[in-house]
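In keeping with the milestone schedule agreed at the kick-off meeting, the structural modelling team has produced records for the first pair of proteins. Each record is given below as a sequence line and a structure-token line. The laboratory manager (R.T.) confirmed that both were archived under the project's standard naming scheme.
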Amino acid sequence: MQIAGFFSSSTPVLKKYKASAAQAAGTIVLRSAAGASGQFSTSAVNSFADALGLCVDNGEYLGAPLSYSTTQGDDEAVFGVVVNPDAILRIQMVTGATGTSITSDTIVTASSNGLTAVGGTSVASPDMDEGILWYLSGANVGKSRKITSTSSVTATVIVPFLANAVGDTYCYAGLNVGLTGFTLTTDLQKVRTDMADSTGGTGTIVDMELNGVNDSYILAVLADNVFTTAT
């Protein structure tokens, strides 16, 4: 996860905050929980309300990164956090809790009218309705459409693709522009495509980069930031 830009400016506001636990760069951090030792807490895979921003670096002392410690005499761990409420986050799209390549599928029943993609895996559980589908090969390579309904292994669209053919490959995700809610991987750095839309933490998708199974991304903003509005 990284900063892709800002809605209102090109200048990141970077603050150094005290850690409450071990922390990795490229993760969302939250307002410190009650009783926590530092100034921020770590997000969860499906909850990032009261966000401070994106942790982008580990503090250093004499050129060496600092680790969180409660041992007397150890140097205090501080991390750099970009706190712009309008920051746009670029997050890699993956499959599964640990973040493997997006699972692609293959057309098994051709659709001459371009309104369905019938593959070998379920798009109804978890339900990909209102998500996105895009082709990796065949006549529709590089094209995408919003999924408007699902049934078992069939995803249906309203704006037709070109006719597809048996063997064409495609990807799908329970994610789409304007939807609020997505789920992160266990390392808190990537976004899962295999979850129903609008489930998870309070982030809103601004745009999508739909490429291959290892290089597709969402661009998103944190919808619950302590410097704008907080729950």
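The second protein of the pair:
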Amino acid sequence: MINSNKKLSNALQRISKENVASVLLEAETFAVAQLLEHRNTSPLATIATALANIAGKPYGLSPKQYVEHYEAIGLVWDKKKSSFSIGKDADFSDVPVGYWVGMERPVNTESDSEKAVKAFERIAKTELTLTQAIALLQNAYQTDAKVAA
């Protein structure tokens, strides 16, 4: 159980793909409790900086999304110090713990023709050779050159 900043740091350093979701949920539970009880934002900052080095994060939990989530409730992120401060209009009385739980990746609904238009637009913007353009199209459609010919 995470109940101190030292245990939080240790848990974030020892995190693995198998336990990433549960450790991050427990870490954020501790961080939000610190924010609510003591107006202490350092555990949130510790998590935000550690997210960049954690593999297998749940969808919606990039460092940028994490910082944006807490900025939305009134905390202010200082990039130079890698820390949060409490803003004037901060209202964190009902901060959700584990906001990312249950978030689903958006489904790509582009048709093949829309993908082709985007691929041709990228080709037109660059000075690609014919071979490079064909490779770009093969990659976009994940086809084999022999099958396409």
